[in-house]
Amino acid sequence: xxxxxxxxxxxxxxxxGRDKVTGVARYAAEHPAPGRAHxxxxxxxxxxxxVRAIDTAAALRLPGVLAVxxxxxxxxxxxxxxxxxxxxxxxRVPHRGWPVALVVAETLEAAREGAAxxxxxxxxxxxxxxxxxxxxxxYAPEEANGGYPAEREHGDPESAFESAAVRVDTDYRxxxxxxxxxxxxxxxxxxxxxxxxVVQDSSQxxxxxxxxxxxxxxxxxxxxxxMSEHVGGGFGSKGTPRPQVVLxxxxxxxxxxxxxxxxxxxxxxxxxxxxxxxxxxxRLGATESGHLTSxxxxxxxxxxxxxxxVEQAATPARVMYAAPHSRTSHRVVPxxxxxxxxxxxxxxxxxMYALESAMDELASALGMDPVELRVANEPETEPDSxxxxxxRHLVECLREGARLFDWSHRDPRPRSRSEGPLLVGSGxxxxxYPVLVSPxxxxxxxxxxxxxxxxxxxxxxxxxxxxxxxxVAADALGVPLDxxxxxxxSSDLPSAPLAGGSSGTASWGWAVHxxxxxxxxxxxxxxxxxPAEGLTSTADTEGTADAESAYSRHAFGAHxxxxxxxxxxxxxxxxxxxxxxxxxxxxxxxxxxxxxIGGMTMGLGMxxxxxxxxxxxxxxxxxxxxxxxxxxxxxxxxAVEAHWIxxxxxxxxxxxxxxxxxxxxxxxxxxxxxAVHHATGxxxxxxxxxPDRVLSGLTD
Length: 700
Description:
Strand 24 and strand 25 form a beta hairpin. The strands form 7 sheets. Strands 3-5-1-14-11-12-13 form a 7-stranded mixed sheet, with helices on both faces. A 5-stranded mixed sheet has the order 9-17-16-15-10. A 5-stranded mixed sheet has the order 18-19-24-25-28, with helices on both faces. By secondary structure, it is an alpha+beta fold. It is globular. The longest helix has 22 residues. The chain has 17 helices and 28 strands.
């Protein structure tokens, strides 16, 4: 690409794309490591209690087995800030699936065989894994995930609801959900002769992994190198270090050899986090003209007994609609379950499913078009904080989506359209996601041959970060895109925050833009040819990127769905999904569309196929692999369209961009659920909408 004016925003191809599809790109478990050994965890088979004894003799007699690490003899770690990383440090079993040993062997097969030969005796205690709204152990936390206040109240929502002309009071349930990235959580670790720790880890943030490992093993951070060059997805589950990297480093220290630990697929639900189930009650009060007078959103969720994590599902209601009286609250129940964690759009995805479903129910009660109901309740400022929005084009997204979807020709009556045994319906939902950004550092070098190298410890988790950062640099430098190369994915590069919260590009790009702008000025002042080592410039956005904003900064979107419901089988098929987004300036049209469509596809899975069950007897997730936990396939997604409205928002970052990785999932499940109601006349309030559940509703 030679046109510098189009470097930012152009649909540039991903630079690592060919390497990935041809197998050249190497992931955490694929890097050559002479003398490498393999580790296989032994997972606890009880839901609560402790390890009484471990018999490793049979395992150690097997050919190829080198060692078995147990709580009695594993390397000692400093106490971590994250209790889920204190593996093999004591005999406690906080939940089923907790690692109680690690077998290290010459081959993966020998390690697996050795793990099967380890005998563990437990002291089991009674467990409780069942979430209920009125659970006696439930409590109101101080904060929900992300530092949000657990409760916010404005006005008198209870009285306003009781006096409202039209009311909706209903409950919604979202089950546990699992991230299941294509690449399982994996790490390869080795200790050098001079005591350095070198790790390849499947992680969304190598800088954070380095900091945590240095603290755990009590070595200086500059003695730890973590590389995450290519990552096969994470969706939040790789946002912070997970047990595999700690186990690999412990085993490498014990054996004196490089050790790779790849967590088996069936182990993932128990040790890498999950989206916690949510029991949600929504109460909406409105005038006969459809204006909200009261909004109440109450969430009950679970957490583990070793680490508090509260899914912030009620927080989106604080920014979406104008309601003079509101209350949003969270309640959490500690249970003997694995620790929940981030999953794509934590809080927003389940919370907006409930809120947008309730808005559809309100529209039905009012006899009002659901698009017009949302437009009628558009706030002038953020309802919770009172801050002005930096930009908010939700109404434009709704209007444009309705035009593209031919919404005006929709018969609003439920069950008004059929094709033989198929009922056809359409639905709409809104979406929001906050603009998040963190300080970052970056460096850029101008070389005598006219090329430039950008260095930043960004992580490309499949989003095209390398390409977009090169576009940011080319735009700031005023040079063709093909003259810029990027180096990412190593903690030896300038430190950067993790890829999460749709904040990666905004955070890294801000530092890259600043470094390149400084370098451009230096080049303008430089006379004569560049020295052999070139000219360099660095940037650190601490104090600016994380400065308090006077504006409420959010991305918004509108989702439209058309579905068919088979009255014979109960099967729901999505014929068409449409998303229209307002997310600042789009920095790469090709990768942005891919992110939007990926999020919408994941939202389709949330609506129709994905869900996990906590077995009350064994304290285990029964859908523990991809044979039982069903994610959408190509045949499930026949037509998905993503469009956007370009926003000129000067209150974001130098690129004027908002995050796009998560907003695609946020409203999709509600749009599909609302379409199913329109098709059938039956309101389903529990996900996923599986054939058995739908058929039962149709025949009741």
